[in-house]
């Protein structure tokens, strides 16, 4: 039965996101908000996140090129990015943003640049994973409801 | 007698967070307004708006949550103000409470945390009747 096979694939995929630390409990919170009124709420919020985060990361890239560095501005931008990541449960991204902020606090330009590369890497990785996930979810259709990992 | 919907003000600079919290609040049957920073929240109250609950982020541009809370209390706002922050350092909690916030909740706001807040302040759906 292809349908149940797709369901299993979906469940396995989602479980791996949590097991590997890409997503945390907050993602379940967002899934639980999806209902008949907002049947695509999760994908909409995630899409909004990736659009907004790309914009922020562009601004951070631009800010990192400046000399002397404006660490207050950098901190403000990464704070925004961290907040967005946290809101959708993007755990690894959130953690890398925290590391970046620590380097900002210490006014460590090199540290900021290095940690931002990791932020971008986690962003790209999560984006690919969630794009694949939603592609599969669309194949399964609206029947799939929020479930905890592995169910 | 018509139902009067309870109203809340979400003071939060992060657009994604606003979308998520907004859905949470609407699900709880609350009418929600949003302000992108503390100054917008203060202006809203100065303009005559009143709320049954205010959710206040800490770090925001233009005016942060501590200052906004202080100013709202000076304006005579009596509604519960619940501070929201991912940073749970005691110094930030203390600053918020000294400014006049009623409590401090760690972000992100979840369904359960919101339900606890609404119950605590008598704001559950049906409490307005």
Number of strands of chain B: 5
Q: CATH superfamily of the domain at 1-14 and 25-87 and 100-109 in chain B, called what?
A: Response regulator
Question: C-alpha Rg of chain B, in Å?
Answer: 14 Å
Poorly predicted parts of chain A: none
Strand order of the largest sheet of chain B: 2-1-3-4-5
**Under the CATH scheme, which architecture of the domain at 1-14 and 25-87 and 100-109 in chain B would be assigned?**
3-Layer(aba) Sandwich
Assembly status = heterodimer
CATH class of the domain at 1-14 and 25-87 and 100-109 in chain B: Alpha Beta
- DSSP strand tally of chain A: 0
C-alpha-based Rg of chain A, rounded? 17 Å
Strand percentage of chain A lies at: under 5%
Spans where pLDDT lies below 50 across 5 or more residues of chain B:
none
Shape of chain A: elongated
Helix content of chain A: over 70%
Our measurement of the CA-to-CA distance between the termini of chain B, rounded to an integer number of angstroms, reads 8 Å
| Helix vs. strand class of chain A | mainly alpha
Provide structural commentary:
The complex is a heterodimer of chains A (151) and B (129). With 151 residues, chain A is mostly helical. Chain A has helices at 2-19, 25-33, 41-64, 71-88, 91-105, 109-140. In chain A, helix 1 (2-19) runs antiparallel to helix 6 and helix 5 (91-105) runs antiparallel to helix 6 (109-140). Chain A is elongated and about 55 Å long. The model of chain A has no long low-confidence stretch (mean pLDDT 91). In chain B, helix 1 (15-27) links the parallel strand 1 and strand 2. Chain B has 129 residues and is of the alpha/beta class. Chain B has a domain at 1-14 and 25-87 and 100-109: Response regulator (Rossmann fold, 3-Layer(aba) Sandwich). Chain B is globular and about 35 Å long. Classes of the chains: A mainly alpha (151), B alpha/beta (129). The A-B interface holds A 25-26, 29-30, 32-33, 35, 38, 41, 45, 48-49, 52, 76, 79-80, 82-84, 86-88 and B 13-17, 19-20, 23-24, 27, 59, 61, 86, 107-108, 110-111. Chain B: Keywords: Phosphoprotein. Chain B: One of its GO terms (biological process) is phosphorelay signal transduction system. Chain B: It comes from Zingiber officinale (Ginger).
């Amino acid at each position: 039965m292809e349908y149940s096979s797709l369901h299993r694939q979906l469940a396995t995929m989602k479980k791996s996101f949590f097991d590997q630390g890409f997503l945390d409990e907050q993602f379940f919170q967002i899934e639980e908000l999806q209902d008949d009124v907002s049947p695509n709420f999760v994908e909409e919020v995630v899409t909004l996140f990736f659009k907004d985060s790309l914009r922020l990361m562009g601004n951070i890239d631009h800010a990192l090129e400046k000399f002397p560095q404006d660490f207050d501005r950098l901190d403000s931008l990464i704070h925004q990015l961290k907040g967005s990541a946290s809101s959708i449960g993007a755990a690894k991204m959130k953690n890398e943003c925290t590391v970046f902020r620590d380097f900002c606090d210490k006014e460590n330009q090199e540290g900021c640049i290095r940690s931002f590369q990791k932020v971008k890497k986690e962003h790209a990785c999560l984006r690919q994973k969630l794009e694949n996930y939603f592609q599969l979810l669309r194949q399964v259709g609206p029947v799939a409801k929020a479930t905890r990992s592995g169910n | 007698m018509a139902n009067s919907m309870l109203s809340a003000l979400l003071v939060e600079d992060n657009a994604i967070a606003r979308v998520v919290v907004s859905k949470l609040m609407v699900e709880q049957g609350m009418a929600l307004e949003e302000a992108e920073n503390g100054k917008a929240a203060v202006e809203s109250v100065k303009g005559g708006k009143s709320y049954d609950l205010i959710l206040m982020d800490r770090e925001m541009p233009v005016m942060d949550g501590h200052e906004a809370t202080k100013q709202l209390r000076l304006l005579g706002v009596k509604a519960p103000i619940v501070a929201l922050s991912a940073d749970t350092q005691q110094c930030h909690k203390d600053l918020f409470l000294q400014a006049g916030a009623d409590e401090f909740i760690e972000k992100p706001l979840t369904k359960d945390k919101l339900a606890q807040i609404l119950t605590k302040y008598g704001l559950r759906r049906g409490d307005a009747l």
